[in-house]
Structure of THO complex subunit 6:
Amino acid sequence: MVTAMDCRNWDEDVYRDSILLERESQCRTVFRTAFAPNPNPNHNSYPDLIVAGISDGTIASYSISSCLDLSSAGNSLVPVAESSWLVQGHDGPAYDVKFYGNDEDSLLLSCGDDGRIRGWKWKELLGSKEPVQGGTSEPILDLVNPQQKGPWGALSPIPENNCMAVNTQTGSIFAAAGDSCAYCWDVEKNEIKMVLKGHSDYLHCIVARNSHNQVITGSEDGTARIWDCRTGKCIQIIDLHKDKRSRELFPYVSCIALDASESWLACGSGRSLSVWNLPACECVSRITTTAAIQDAIFHDNQVLAVGAEPLLSRFDLNGDIISQIPCAPQSLFSISLHPSGVTAVAGYGALVDIVSQFGSHLCTFQC
């Protein structure tokens, strides 16, 4: 039996807006997640809060325990999680979120398509009385990439920030920008310490090698470069694809990761993941994957990687597959690891999967 529909109060504008809103929600993407600092000194304790940088420019935190309760309710649909705190961080997508510090006094940092790095006091966010309305919270740190001067004094657009790295010992934040430069910012003075120039195309990723006072950048030009932070000079170029055919297939460096000893480097490039021994400057293994690699991280002498397929893959340093875990997002952009071994993967559809240290799914939620 077909239910009759009353069209006398039909509102075309409301219907159109609802369709657009639904499509926008389906296309939202979580580009990066970060586990919040744990006030408990016991590193084996499970994480509770996770922060997400989302394609609509918002930065939001979610309670994992609350998401576990939603998942256990038995609903077949992926639950939409309610944020414990949310702010409109950027005009355009938020590409990265990180914590500057490891305790409640740390800063929550974000960067995005508008060329800004913004920072909030994490302790103040935790104590916010109006979690969602906290979108009006003003950052205590607001850094903007410089514009380059062109002919007749015309200014270029502000280059976007695609990724960040931090060094709390030197008070520095590093940004991988869209003008092929990496910017080193002084946290205390809110000014640029140095500009790392040498890449011929925009930067996708950056990691800090703090034990050597270095940073490593990955670029669209197909190389990773190691920089001395004392001089601002490039001291080593890692060419992932020296042969012409390989460079044509995988011309860019999409992600890089360092292990805990900062002696091993993983580089994602198209459907290829390579592992390098940095002291020897030697590629020890090269893995061919079925989809483009978009993020990677080290864990216990293994490499975890995600990309343009709904899988969390784990490899050993020789390139052999240890495990592959199906995930909810059809394309994954972020993988985050908690000291307890709990992993978060996130991507298309604003979906986040929380995976236990044993490889089982704890919960899935939509931001």
Remarks:
- Confidence is low (pLDDT under 50) at residues 131-135.
- Residues 27-146+330-366 form a domain with the Thrombin, subunit H fold (CATH 2.40.10.480).
